[in-house]
Amino acid sequence: MIEARGLSKRYGKTLAVDNLSFSVTPGRVTGFLGPNGAGKSTTMRMILGLDTPTGGSALIGGKPYADLKHPLRTVGALLDAKWVHPNRSARGHLRWLARSNQLPAKRVDEVLDLVGLSGVANKRAGGFSLGMSQRLGIAGALLGDPQVLLFDEPVNGLDPEGILWIRKFMHRLADEGRTVFVSSHLLSEMALTAQDLIVIGRGRLIAHSSTEEFVAAATENTVRVRSPQLAVLRGALGRTGVSLRDEGDSLVVSGMESADIGELAAANGVVLHELSPQRGSLEEAFMQLTGDSVEYHTDLDAPAAADLIAAGK
Amino acid sequence: MTTLLATERIKLLTTRSPWWSTLAALGLTIGFALIIALNASRPAEFEVSQTQFGYQFGLMVVLVMAALAVTTEYRFSTIRATFLAVPNRAAALLAKTGVVTALSVLIGLVAAFGSLGVSMLVLPDAPLALDSAAEWRAVIGVPLVFGVAAVIAVAVGVLLRQSAGAIAVLLIWSMLVENLVTLIPDVGQDIRNWMPFAMSEQFLLGPFDERPLGPWGSLAYFAGVGVALLIAALAVARRRDA
């Protein structure tokens, strides 16, 4: 159980995290979603006691991180897979971590086995690929068999196989009843990984709901219709008061189920060539929600810039 | 604390730089003693303190090794992994200081007696028995000075967090600044006499008639500088975002 209460962090003039309150429950994968620079990493670092909040507090199982005795037994975290001395072996890295929290040395070999690094245990970590480093980081997080796990952008830069492995791993950890808190800037990834979502933008809470609810609320459901008698259909649909949009040779209907549209077409003797429900793109929905809260805008879509480009300057 | 000391011992000895540093410190110190002894013009007048002239080389290596033990943690962010495992930052850094200091004392011990030993081998007729307190101090003082130097270097490493910066400050201070202040007219020599590394030199080699403190007072002063820097470093590390 992770709890943030009015968490804030100010760097000079910038308010990186702004009065953030949420709780993360056990037994589920909770996604922490937001564009780059939204304050996800800063929030995680405050939860883990690395950064001191300017205001508010973060608790793990009711306690601040600094008050945990042998914290690795309660909380496992992977904030950055590169937090390893490059000349230390994978086993050496895990050995000192285990020793610091009085964990048995045999636990090191267990977690190495768990993440599939037993074969390279004595190789220097500096020579690891990103995927292997990520696995080593996860091994470190699992060392104390903790009930709470935090992962910051764990799939960033991984190949599809690595992404799938991590996704399955998160699900397994949550199924074992653990609290799993994963950050990402990709809604499409979170839609596959997380059951709950905490969405932030510019340090502020935007949404806190189940992933399903968030996706359903965020995406507009439309139906694409193609027909040789489009004008007749448009007239019939227009009388029902739904909103219509022309898109090439097809009509995009929002606010009406595809079954109802099909029946309306049949009643009016209209032949349909296509009747397909459209799910709005997740990324578009996400952009819409967080659009105003992205920290670094590109100016490319500003009219002035467009004019400049059009003029070939 | 034993857990933390064991943790830091694993950390220190699972990288290569302390091993190389140890070899370099011993090789340079004892090698220099060998060269001095081989070139002794009057073996019968060769003194114990002359066998220890090479300690300055070992001191430089110890300063670099101890600073790197901390700054590489910042460089590779393993300091964050450390603070995640041990949220009591002062305790974690004290354990590190303890382990690095212990290794430095050990290096100093081997270097000092190694230097004395090779001198005895090369000059069997020289009066190198440790008969007086001053002679004992010249030898056994080396590990003590190395130990305090390690504390200073760890503290500077924590404060500056960068390898290049910390090493530059430590070496430029101990080799240049403390010597160049003597160029200041009138008060230069007095200022130098109160400088920490000058104090450590006075502790080892004297003379004390013109110096502000006696041998053990000089060592206490040197150690006091180390403790003050360490307290400042721990306070800063506690408050700073990791």
Automatic annotation (TrEMBL), chain A:
Q: Does the keyword Nucleotide-binding apply?
A: yes
Q: Tell me which species this is from.
A: Actinokineospora fastidiosa
Write the record's keywords in alphabetical order, separated by commas: ATP-binding, Nucleotide-binding, Transport
Q: Which residues cross the membrane?
A: none
**Cross-referenced SMART domains, in alphabetical order?**
AAA
Superkingdom assignment: Bacteria
Q: Name one GO molecular function term.
A: ATP hydrolysis activity
- Name recorded for this polypeptide: ABC transporter ATP-binding protein
PANTHER family associated with the record: ABC TRANSPORTER, ATP-BINDING PROTEIN
Q: Which residues form the ABC transporter domain?
A: 2-227
User: Which family does the similarity line name?
Assistant: Belongs to the ABC transporter superfamily.
Automatic annotation (TrEMBL), chain B:
Its lineage reads: Bacteria, Bacillati, Actinomycetota, Actinomycetes, Pseudonocardiales
Where exactly are the transmembrane stretches of this chain? 20-41, 53-72, 93-118, 138-160, 167-185, 219-237
What's the protein called, per UniProt?
A: ABC transporter permease
Which keywords does the record carry? Membrane, Transmembrane, Transmembrane helix
